[in-house]
């Protein structure tokens, strides 16, 4: 207790210095900075309570920094359409320390462009089938959320990093889970905190990736590997020894960790809610979803893999997924930093202040989506009818997520095999909260049976 008090006393003057520079003539957004350093961080981490009751712009303190909270269509556009002279990409101190990322967007876009993604459907198909054989077949009950996290991590290891199944992958997943657990924690570096354990795990993950980069680089040099066999090889292939700004090993590690983090929990959460919906909501709409997948399965020979053309037929299934992401968004928002003093909605956002934008709040706005609590995939029959920057689960404008199509294929391939091979029902009611991803109290346990077998 004395140690915590000492840390608090030490940090308070630093916080006051950060906020003292603001002159009284500036009109700051309404709200309170709360307790120095801690501010509203704890209430944010406790299931995202209270944010529906504040205005579209307000000030607060999050994770040790003075912060302006924004939501609404204009806020979404501001967050995603502003250039680097106004907003800088930012994260909480815990995320920055743990990831410390720099984007090498060109390499990511090359690896994740549609022409390249067509080549990955078969690999993804195989990974999903192996997962089902190992964790679903001959089972009477499974717990969905941890299984979906296992699956998405295995897909990342196979397609993005080329890490084969075995001891290395098993060790990596354990370290990764501990790293993720502390990424949104209050940045107090003491031995017993989640934040400190996360930092140690992050360092171990980085070292494992550096070893992998060395191996991939040697393969590329000696054997001329296919540049698109995995993301690390793609980034190594884009290096030019005559270029003084070539991609460094550290940048490859940073981007690998960024992709690993961004692509893991998000897809797992979407898949979990899709499975939950099919068990809980008995709608004709969901029958259309199942029928679409069964029609695709009828056109395949036994054991034949899905191909790109099959994915393009899953239009209704993707509308179901989009509506699921609208109602249960995996990502609620993110952070930027003001490069200079910014005027927004009549208020000043001071230079260097953190900006916390919550994109998902527009998705439950009844002024944008009629009856937002109602599950209705038909909303997405004509996506152009939705006002710009009101539904952006993958970001928007120049800051759209380069992995959005990868996540789409991953979701569609997985749900195809689950829907066509199994029926299921909930084992018990399951509550979800945010930590900061939607987290299930029980992991969503379900009873399963092979298709055509009745409960």
Any overview of this molecule?
The chain has 455 residues and is of the alpha+beta class. The protein has a single domain, classed as Cytochrome p450 (Orthogonal Bundle), CATH 1.10.630.10. It contains 16 helices and 12 strands. The chain has helices at 2-20, 41-45, 73-81, 93-99, 105-112, 114-117, 121-135, 144-160, 167-181, 194-223, 231-237, 249-280, 284-298, 308-312, 315-327, 404-421; strands at 57-62, 65-71, 87-90, 141-143, 334-338, 342-344, 347-349, 354-358, 422-426, 432-434, 438-440, 445-450. It has a 5-stranded mixed β-sheet with strand order 1-2-8-5-3. Strands 4-12-9 form a 3-stranded antiparallel β-sheet. Strands 6-7 form a two-stranded antiparallel sheet. A hairpin with a 2-residue loop joins strand 1 and strand 2. The termini are far apart. Pfam families: p450 (PF00067). It is found in: Membrane. Keywords: Heme, Iron, Membrane, Metal-binding, Monooxygenase, Oxidoreductase, Signal, Transmembrane, Transmembrane helix. This is Cytochrome P450.
Strand content: 5-15%
The fold-level CATH name is: Cytochrome p450
CATH class assignment: Mainly Alpha
State the order of secondary-structure elements, H for helix, E for strand.
HHEEHEHHHHEHHHHHHHHEEEEHEEEE
Radius of gyration: 23 Å
The side-by-side strand order for the widest beta sheet comes to 1-2-8-5-3
Describe the largest sheet. 5 strands, mixed
Could you tell me the number of beta strands?
12
Task: Decide which structural class fits the backbone.
Answer: alpha+beta
Level-2 CATH architecture: Orthogonal Bundle
Low-confidence stretches: 1-12, 21-25, 45-50, 98-103
User: What is the name of the CATH superfamily?
Assistant: Cytochrome P450
Q: How many discrete domains?
A: 1
Shape: globular
Distance between the amino and carboxyl termini: 54 Å
Mean pLDDT: 80
- Percent range for helical residues? 40-55%
Number of helices: 16
Protein name: Cytochrome P450
Family: Belongs to the cytochrome P450 family.
Main location: membrane
Signal peptide: 1-19
